[in-house]
Every structure is written in C-alpha cells, then in structure tokens.
Write a structure and sequence with these properties.
alpha+beta; Helix Hairpins; 4 domains; 5-stranded mixed sheet
Amino acid sequence: MAGLNIQLDPINDATSWRSLTVFAGYRLFLAAILLAVFYLGLPPGFLGESNASLYSVVSQLYFLIAVALLFMTLQRWVPFTTQTKLQLVIDIVVITLLIHASGGLKTSLGSLLVVVVVAGGVLMPGRLSLFIAAIATLAILLEAAYSQVFNLGITDYSDAGILGATFFATAILTQILSQKIAESQQLADERAADIINLAMLNEHIISRMQTGVLVVNTEGKIQLSNRAARQLLAIDDTHKTQLLKHCVPELGEQLWQWRQNMSRSFMPFQATPDLPELAINAMLLESGESVLYIENSAAISQQAQQLKLASLGQLTASIAHEVRNPLGAISHAGELLSEAKDAGPETRKLTDIIQRHSARVNNIIETILQMSRRKTVDPTVIVLASWLTQLMAEFINYKQVPEQDIGLVIKAPLANVYLDAEQLRQVLWNLLDNAWHYSREKDGEQRVGVVLALEGEVVSIDVIDNGPGVSETILPVLFEPFQSERQGGTGLGLYLARELCQANGVRLNYVSDKIEKSCFRLHIPVKKQENLK
C-alpha cells in the first residue's frame, strides 16, 4: 500500500511560480499603461514633467524588460529566489527613475512601490521581504536627497519618511498574512492529501473485494462498479452510465421491483448461463442511489460443501460400522435360509427379496462412503485433453464397450484447470456410467460423446448421450438424493457428483436444449481459486 501514500511539499513550487508569473503579467500591464499614457498625452499630465526624455527612455526600457522578465518566468530559466530578487530590485530602480523624471515624490507615484513591497512579502519569506522594503525606502530617500542637493524643488523628508515606514509596515503585515495563508494552505493541502489517500484506499479495497459492488442512480444508470461486479455480471467499464436493464435485464427488473417495495428481496439469478448463481443485497442511499452487493452464491456453497463433506465423513464412518454388521448378518441369514433343504419356492422368493434389498442397502452405504473418503479437496493442475483421453480409454476398457460408440471431441487442446483430479474423475465416471446406461443403440450413431471446449475464462465439459433425456417429473429433483429413474439405482450418483463439483468450485448443470439428446455440462473456471485448499 506504499504506492497510495501521497505527501505534499510544504513549499509548493508550482504555486510560487504561478504567483511570480501573475506579478510579471502585472508588470507588463503597468509598463504598457505608463508608456501609453505618456505618449498619448492622457491624464495625469505630470508623467515625465521634470525630464521627458529620461521618462521616455526609461518607460520604453521598462516595457521591454517586462516582456523579457515574463518570458524568463514562464521558462523558469533562473532559480525562483534569484529571479524574484532580480525582478523586484529592477522594479524599484525603474519606478524610482520614473518618479524622478515626473517631478519627485509629490507625484504620488511612490505608491507603485508599495505594490512591489507587497509582492516581495508574498513571494519572498522572512527577512528577504524586509530587504526589499529597505531597498525601496533607500531608493525614496536617495530621490529626496538628490532633489535637495540639486535644488530641484521643495523636498519634504517627512513624506519620504512616512513612505518608508509604510514600506516596512506593509512588508511586515504582508509577511504575517502570507504566513497565515501559507499555514492555512498547507493544512488544506494536508487535508486534501488525506482525502485523496482515503479515496484511493477505498477504491483499492473495493476493487479487490470478492463481493461485487454496483452503484445505480435514480435513473437506473450504472454509476460505479468494482472488478468483482463486472466479472460476475459479465459487464465492463464501457457499460458505465448505461442503463442497468440494458446491461443485465433481469437484475434491472429486480432492482426496479425492489425500489417499489423495499421489503421485497432479490431472487438468486445467473447473468448468463455460463456464470455462477448470484445473491443480491441492496441499500438505498440518502441521495437516492442504490448500492447493490453481489455475492457469488456458488463460492459460498462451495465452502459449505467442503465443510459438509468433512462432517459427512465422520457420520458415515459411524453408519458403516453400525449398519453394515447387522446388514451382513441379515444377508448371511437369508443365504442360509434359501439353502435349507425344506425351503420351498415361497421361501426362496422371500429370501431373494432379502438378498436384493440387502445388496441395495449395502450399495447405498458404499456410495455414501465414497463421499467421506476424500474429506478435503487436494487440487492440482490438470491438462484436460490428455487427462480426458486417458479417462475415456479406461472407461471403454472397464465397461468393455465398442470404441466407436463413445467419442471425445477436443476443442480446447491446451485447456488446463486447477482441481482435485480424483474427485473430477469420480464425477465424470458417474456421468459416463449414467450416459451409457440411458443411451440407445442406433445404427450409425454414436451413443455417448464428451466435448471439451473453452469460452473466455471458463472450460466446459459436456457428457452427451442419445437417450430419451430426463423426464419432466424428475427434472426438478434431479440432483436430490434418493431420486432416480434407474432400475436398482440409489439416486445418490448425481447428488454426489454435484456435491463434489461444488466443493471444487465447478458448476454441474443439466442442459435441456439438446434436441433428442441428454447433456450434462461442467463449467470449470480456468483461474486458480484461492479457497480450494
């Protein structure tokens, strides 16, 4: 976070140069006025009254010097302090000469030196401002003395003294005021820096939050969104200031309904079929803007599933011990009863029922135990193309099925993911086994197919069969335990597959848009997931 720290220099060079530039502009304006008034004969008429030729030369030279000093200030050729002292001394000398050429202190041109002294107090801190006041006072006294020595008129030393005292008083007051202003400016700059730091810190935190944050104004336009919100809603920065209902129609509709009735809650939804299910919470600001907090409910479920699997492992270990022993005794007793010499057809029929249902209960226990054997996720990088090829070959060999009846299509040969390989194998094996069971043998048609594809940052694996698909009655409870249309099935296979998928951050869905085919699709994020540990 060091990059967010902003510190301000107590002496703002940019501000000082800007002030000097303003003063240089004032000098140029003053020089132009003094020159124009003299040559155009405009009032007051005392300009150049005592020595017109001297006034003419000095005023023209002052105008040229003003132009040069303004250019030097803009270019910053000379260090600030040196250039400021040079300019102020030039002003004092030139204005004193103009006062002399116009008839002395009686012309009241000495007030122009007050501006120079004020500028010195603003631009030059400390004793340097008093130095400028001293030079201005000395210049006035020299002018008064020169007039006295050469009998150029009545010399009033009291006017010179008052003007000199005014210079020093002005310099001191300007220095005090400048110091107060500088302290206030420094305090304001520090507060501004704190606000900037805080704003950047807030932006840094919000942008890296796992929770999406979306700010929508009263017109329904997106005002602000962090990176998590853009990823979860599949929008980008170009959607800023656009209507939410155009970017994410379903969320825009739910927000409108929520604003009509604040007690109404947001329903979970998916921005697109390939994105996770989202949970939304909203807050209304006093300004009328709505702040939406967007949670990846799949990620929350994923962590819950890992805890659930760990707890289930402890429970099933106890169940296996307590149930399998008496179940084995029942099964063994049924076998002995069926082998008895006096066992008739009716007895054998009943013992057969005992054997079949004992086997089914045992199968259920075995399936549940599979959920507890891997209590935690152990993710590794899996190169899917080669991994799926090996898995398909193993399945074909184990099931002894014709190779032409099962196919693998690889559209993303370089795709790799970060998952628990054993748990992924268990999921896909279950899906392949179901697909093969429900598939139908048709002339010239492949019965089961697996398709590997990549879209954006999501890998998809489709397991497709040419069977009749899932019926409308079982579809709502397809992934619930003990729900199965398969003869002798436990109804735990798809439930276990969904549980393992959620524990690995994978979404398993049944895709019903395949015409006359059944398709189960896995959505796997390409990026590593930090909560897979």
